[in-house]
Amino acid sequence: MSRKQTHQIAKLELLLDDIRKKIIFLPTKKMIYKDVTFAQLKVIRFLSNRNNAPMSDIAKALSVTLPTATGLVDNLVHNRYLKRHHERKDRRLVRVELSIKGYKLLKVCSKIQRERFAKIRDSMTSANWKKFIKAVETVDRLLDIR
Questions:
Q1: Could you give the angle at the alpha carbon of 58 between the alpha carbons of 21 and 78, nearest 5°?
Q2: CATH class in words for 3-144
Q3: Average pLDDT value for the chain
């Protein structure tokens, strides 16, 4: 890989991370998640698709160690966004699920995210929006290839 390509990839990594944070976590006027970090919000989003997940799955999905995932979950349990319980058959297996408060936060965050996507869409011409969607679909499809 050339130096220019390496620089372009590094720039893309930073850009995508910045975009993700702005869409998902940029503070709003209401500031609904004062006590939730970006990493914790990623846990909540993961559980929205895979509720009642073992801690090991959360760690794997977030690409963090089990102790790091445990720390994130500890704070979310403390703030009542998540509930944690042990398996009956194997008490070593800890499962985590969203609480009612966690679902409410997820609902508000999803609404904010939709509003931000609508703002992006509304600022583009119809042709540019279609090109943008096509480019995102292409990237998604390329990432599914193993």
A1: 80
A2: mainly alpha
A3: 87
Token digits for 140? 């998604």
pLDDT of residue 17: 81
CB 72 within 8 A of CB 63: no
Give the C-alpha separation, 71 to 33, whole Å.
18
CA separation for the pair 86, 109 (Å, rounded): 28
Residue 116 CA: distances (Å) to CA of 26, 90, 121, 139, 141? 10, 43, 9, 21, 23
pLDDT tens readout for residues 94-142: 899 999 999 999 898 888 888 888 998 999 999 999 999 999 899 888 8
Distance CA 146, CA 136 (A): 18
Residue 37's alpha-carbon distances to 21, 53, 145, in angstroms, are 11, 20, 32
Q: Per the structure block, which two tokens stand in for 131?
A: 């090109």
Angle between the N-to-C axes of helices 3-25 and 100-122, in degrees from 0 to 180, rounded to the nearest 10: 120
How far is the C-alpha of 95 from the C-alpha of 86, rounded, in Å?
Answer: 6
